[in-house]
Specification:
Radius of gyration: 24 Å
CATH class of the largest domain: Mainly Alpha
Shape: globular
CATH topology of the largest domain: MetI-like fold
Number of domains: 2
Order of helices and strands: HHHHHHHHHHHH
Number of helices: 12
Helix content: over 70%
Strand content: under 5%
CATH superfamily of the largest domain: MetI-like
Largest sheet: none
Amino acid sequence: MIPYVVRRVLQMVPLLLGISVVLFAVIQAAPGGPEGNLVASGLFVDPQVTEAYRHRLGVDQPVIVQYFRWISAIALHGDLGQSFSTTRPVAAMIAERMPATLELMLTSFVLAAVLAFPLGVFSAARPAGAVDRLGTGLSFVGVAMPAFWLSLLLQLVFAVELGWLPVSGTHTVGDASLGDHAAHLVLPAIVLSLRNVAGWSRYLRGSMLGVMRADFVRTARAKGQGEGKVLVVHVLRNALVPVVSVMALGLADLFSGAVITETVFAWPGIGRLFVQGMFARDYPLLMGILLLGSAMVLVFNLVADVLYAFLDPRVRYA
């Protein structure tokens, strides 16, 4: 297992390098530039002034030169560059926002698992039953409903109309208690977890229905074991193998989904920082966040493969 993990980690390096080339080219091809906001504001309308500003930022050089300068700084010093909009190190800005994003991601992950597992198990225990039909309906809603629309709907209902929960942010002004912070976390966590609840519960249901047709399950029932024990010990344990892999990959989806959720709920995480960087055309900040997201996808893919081997003794990695 260890040689396999080491080999996979080494393979991530050229893969990340290729991803960085594509991302850098796409961002550079986008219309406008870091001077766009200054020109739009009317502060700098002289072409010579805007050109001097671009020269100071280094974005007037060829794209290849900019890329190699950027990737060399990362490879040699771990330096993601300086933000165009704040002149602060990109790595420091990401590190400041990371705890808030991780808190939202982990809360959403746990909430999704707590809701998806019972829904999937009960749906598989009684196919076409009331719980199964409810789960099917919720899965369609969870997959089809846009995150921004659901966010606004929950804010309108639970924050504006009912007043049960705060609209946005992480704390109420003057109240730094844990309970107040938890209340602010409820709505964004629900929005971010709903899609995974829909997907994971359906994956678990389908996997369990496939295992329930296996010979060893019929043997367990023939021995007189209770239906609950058969479902939990024999069916659920074997059905978890593909589901856990999907859940590990879902962590990367939570990171990308946080962009919309954090923006709507004014959650001070990396997703909201990314949107701010887009409006400011802050190339170093955007590249740093995109590279981090790409690395997380690769890492969670590796985690999924490792978990797959642990759960299924038939899988062996050389």
